[in-house]
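B., you asked whether I could sanity-check this one before it goes into the benchmark set. Here's the sequence:
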Amino acid sequence: MPFPQTIPSAEPFFLPAGRTGCLLLHGLTGAPKEMRWMGDHLCANQVTVLGMRLAGHATSPAALERTRWQDWLASVEDGYNLLRECCEAVFVCGLSLGGTLALYSASFLPVRGVIAMSSPYQLPRDWRLNFVRLLRRIQPRVEKGAPDWHNPDAAAGHVEYPYYPTAAIAELRDLLGEFRAALPQVNVPVLLVHSRQDRGVAPANMEKIHAALGSREKHMLWVENSGHVIPREPDRAVVFSAALDFIRRHSL
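And here's what the prediction gave me:
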């Protein structure tokens, strides 16, 4: 008998408002809920929002084990095409993996601009990455490190898988190789956001992305009192305001 697969509170969301749209993308092993507060803020300011669920997410880790990076990118393209039907200008905003996908998508989709938060440029150096597809047969999961939350209330309600499937690490590695090659082809305005306290993705990643982008207009916003999941952290009001200002400036 069929049954719901999506984790409760982790559903995608659509918030209609104005003729400018923003596609919101969550991080690896996360869920659309990570982006909901940001979506509510944008919608309250007349921006139509679609919070997508990336393929393999918000159901079970087994689903993510079967997912390829091309499936994540297809989720982004689906979201863009849905928003394009009701909006004159579409922006893409993502957290971590979502930010990487947002930037990559801007190399081939006619988006108006990109906001990328806590996004990786490359994985930390580790000899095991060269053999990760073989190692996944021996070690099918990678445990997560200590959380770096600055907002305990948000941490308590956070929805994510409890570990990284090793297969997903392999897909992320391959995606990042394609992503780095595509960055010079990104020529739309970009706002990069990173916390200096991020222990999930080292802050130096933002500077590397910034240097590689082909965009003439590209900005870096540093925040000081947040962990990795910036849109759920104490600095979120500053980031939401900067994102809204960025969208307003470039939607004309």
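One thing to flag: The radius of gyration is 17 Å. Otherwise nothing jumped out at me.
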